[in-house]
Design brief:
This protein has 3 helices and 7 strands; from the N terminus they run ββββαββαβα. The chain is of the alpha+beta class. Strand 1 and strand 2 form a beta hairpin. The two termini are 26 Å apart.
């Protein structure tokens, strides 16, 4: 990845605007997957808002991914928007949560995100 003047990274041919401080946790976007049981569904309007934010500001916080399953616990919307933009990399923090902790965290993240506005999940 090449570092741009604004501190984000760009992979040749693909937009991957990820801030410099997240560079050490960047992974192949295909290595993680959406949570099929995610309680929050993102409509096209919400995804467009997240995409605009990614284009304007880059990825500034990681998605949270279960290390054992590869399933996203927080950041399903951000992941979906990045995929729609054609990104091939994403910053991800990996955790080793038990199933009940993963479920609880995902629910709390969904409830704390502003619905109908920019959110990460």
């Amino acid at each position: 990845m090449d570092k741009k003047a604004d501190g984000t990274f760009q992979k040749a041919g693909k937009m991957n605007n990820i801030i410099d401080s997240l560079g050490s946790i960047v992974v192949d976007i295909r290595s993680v997957k959406l949570d099929p049981k995610n309680a929050r569904k993102h409509d096209s309007r919400n995804l467009e808002t997240i995409k605009k934010s990614l284009l304007a500001y880059g990825q500034r916080k990681p998605i949270v991914v279960n290390k054992e399953t590869g399933i996203i616990e927080a950041g399903n919307g951000l992941y979906s928007a990045a995929k729609e933009l054609g990104w091939d990399k994403i910053a991800a923090a990996f955790v080793s949560d038990e199933k009940d902790v993963a479920t609880g965290y995902a629910l709390m993240d969904n409830q704390s995100a502003p619905h109908g506005h920019l959110g990460t999940n």
